[in-house]
Amino acid sequence: MYLNFGEIGTNIKNLMEDFQKKKPKEQQKLESISDMKAFVENYPQFKKMSGAVSKHVTVVGELSRLVSERHLMEVSEVEQELSCQNDHSNALQNVKRLLQNQRLAELDAVRLVMLYALHYERHSNNALQSLLADLRSRGVSEKYRRLVSAVLEFGGKRVRDSDLFSPKDAVAITKQFFKGLKGVENVYTQHQPLLLETLDKLIKGKLRDNTYPYVGPNTLRDRPQDIIVFIVGGATYEEALTVYNLNRTTPGVRIILGGTAIHNTKSFLEEVQTAGFHSRHT
């Protein structure tokens, strides 16, 4: 449930290998009543395992097709760099390169430009207008192009209390390689949602009162044990993964995550649009 695509692929490969070991030999000889009895007794278990393997391989096969068709490994890598590194020149070059790929889905292309816009909003060499022109030239709908400025109004630096982008030391950035399965390449796992930092500070008693006011004693003397996080506007699967990992690695602390929705890019942009944020013509 909480594994990334590469790890799931490796697990399916192991499941398949285990299945092949248990598969009855095609040339199995049924020379006696006991041979036939053993075959009949083992067949339901084999059939059940066969069905499970078939379902998993079918699902992962479809995921693999979508990842390949939409170039999601390449898109994901650039998204991670936009979120976690602070190299404007390299970021702009990579986004422009991907926007030239006509096989990129419209939503993926727009999301790259939105991440660039949010991160480098006030950079002296900001090239957002050039990227919007690239979106227009590749035929991205006006609805999505207009949403780039809407997202900036919704979550730009002017309205943020904290920085969403915390560049990491290049030495700390590692690619995870999953060997032995073709089509499942290395993936970036750099990005951690802001929720991780917020919960870490809360658990350590370092959360700023002016940003997160509370009712009760002037100081929180005891370490919190039960924490309920509710995100008005919606949470994401990555935030659910963050809470799962914190529960698993922080003894004595129990965290529950809730929200008004579980968001992906499409549902989030629909909410921004519904909220009436201004989107300039692009």
From TrEMBL:
Coiled coil: none annotated. Keywords: Protein transport, Transport. It comes from the Eukaryota. Pfam families: Sec1 (PF00995). InterPro entries: Sec-1-like_dom3a, Sec1-like, Sec1-like_dom2, Sec1-like_sf. Belongs to the STXBP/unc-18/SEC1 family. This is Vacuolar protein sorting 45 homolog.
